Amino acid sequence: MAQAQNENLGFSDSAGNRPKEATWRGRGTHAASADTNHDEASRMDFVMTLFRHIGRNVAPGHQTVFDKKVEPDFVKKAGRKPKDRHEVRKAMLENPYFQYWSHLRLYSQEASYYERSQIVDRQLDALIDKAKKVPAGRKGKNDKGSLTLNPALVIPPYQAHFDMHWMPGSYFTEFTKDDVAGGAMYDTGGLYITSSGHLGAYNDGAGYAIARYIQSKFPTFKPKRILDEGCTTGSNTVPLKDAWPQAEVHAIDIGAPVLRTAHARSEALGLAVHYSQQDAEHTNFKTGSFDLISSSMFLHETARKAVHNIVKECYRLLSPGGIMVHVEQPPFSWAKSPFDQMTRDWDTHNNNEPFWGAMHDMDLEKVALEAGFKKENITLEMVPLVTPTESDKYALGKGAWFVFVARK
Ligand SMILES: C[S@@+](CC[C@H](N)C(=O)[O-])C[C@H]1O[C@@H](n2cnc3c(N)ncnc32)[C@H](O)[C@@H]1O
Fold it and tell me: Which of 111, 180, 237, 407 could cross-link with 228 by S-S, CB 3.0 to 4.6 Å?
């Protein structure tokens, strides 16, 4: 079993040995990546191991605590079981094991940002320079990507007023001229650590899962123009260009620092993407511009009203027969119990992700209907998780994504 997992994670150390599990040192880098020295890499490996330990060895204990202590106490007092995640959360809040687990999760998150900011800050000038020069790495292809920033863009209030999941400065803050700090922070292993490497060394598993899903569900569909929304550093945009090399691929985000990194990263990886700084609620693209619109882990970081506007804008931007696919976690109503819902809602209350809970409560079919999509063309389903490896970018991993899909 361990070996099967190793093969699926697909990383090897400098001596060519495959570690038992994904390590931070094994993450994918490119010509615009931050450099790390031995001590930084060791600390990052510790942080990654800590995340894994908390998820694997500490987290399961609070189900036991709930089953054996918190729920029976609740039943004694209320004469019934907790009816929803909010009641479960309130009941768990006073429990020391729950507090301990929560504290560890927060501590590990802070440690991850602290260590990564040390790495990025000490070489920020060099990273800015690398991003400007757009490192060589293109595989002799003729098409070239681009970067269009809009300093006048108004950052939407649901992003502007706090640091999303405690990331210092969030995605959009510019601490200095031509800043890439937000992008470099993200690219230095955030999602790679929290996913324990299960999204692949380049964190591109969601993009390959989208391509795999579209290719198997709509085999004759060949998109010519693709848009990825809330692209951050383009990890899940690049796989779309890889899957459909003839397509013109665009990607938008509100954050200039992440887009600078995205552009440099895509060029370094040899895949042309046109990045622009735009709000997905109202873009400057012409009506009917795209055959495929995607997003990965994006909608849950926007406000409820924004989700409506973004889906309406997708409808406007799609050509007839065009498809939108948003990758997320499933709605709370699909969870097996109020306890599971509560566990999944932890980020709303503790990880500075205020829209997580609201978004996962939304009736997405209704949102799509209101935007103009027909009921028979809307799909909400689970699709296999992809863990790209060195030899197979579409290798199936353990788990599944929720997709919110609609065809115009
Ligand atoms: C969780 S990240 C998405 C991760 C990314 N898709 C990936 O696969 O790595 C959310 C991104 O959405 C961007 N964002 C938030 N609101 C936006 C909006 N209204 N329009 C465009 N981008 C937005 C943020 O700046 C951030 O980069």
Answer: 237
pTM equals 0.94
Paired tokens of 78 = 């209320």
Which residue puts its alpha carbon closest to atom 23 of ligand 1? 230
Q: Which of 185, 238, 301 to mutate to test the pocket of ligand 1 (most atoms within 8 A of CB)?
A: 301
Tell how far the Cα of 302 is from the centroid of ligand 1, in angstroms.
8
Whether the CB-CB separation of 386 and 397 falls below 8 Å is answered with yes
Q: How far apart are CA 353 and CA 346, in angstroms?
A: 9
Q: Give the full edge-to-edge strand order of the sheet including 225-229.
A: 146-148, 274-277, 248-253, 225-229, 290-296, 318-328, 396-407, 378-386
Closest Cα partner for 240 from 268, 229, 282? 229
Strand, helix or coil for residue 223? coil
Give the CATH number of the domain where residue 217 resides.
Answer: 3.40.50.150
Between the alpha carbon of residue 281 and those of residues 112, 274, 307, 406, the distances in Å are: 31, 18, 8, 17
Distance 4 CA to ligand 1 centre (A): 33
The SS3 of residue 390 is coil
Q: How far apart are CA 350 and CA 354, in angstroms?
A: 9
pLDDT tens per residue, range 63-111:
999 999 999 999 999 999 999 999 999 999 999 999 999 999 999 999 9
The amino acid present at 295, given as its one-letter code, is S
Contact 296, 210 (CB under 8 A): yes
Distance in angstroms between the alpha carbons of the first and the last residue of the chain: 43
**Which phi and psi (to 5°) does residue 293 adopt?**
-125, 130
Ligand 1, CB cutoff 6 Å, lining residues:
156, 159, 171-172, 191, 206, 229-232, 235-236, 252-255, 258, 279-281, 296-298, 301-302, 306
Residue type, 140: G
How many domains does the structure of the chain reveal?
1
Q: Which domain holds residue 232?
A: 1-408
Short-list 274, 296, 295, CA closest to 285: 274
Average confidence (pLDDT) over 150-159: 96
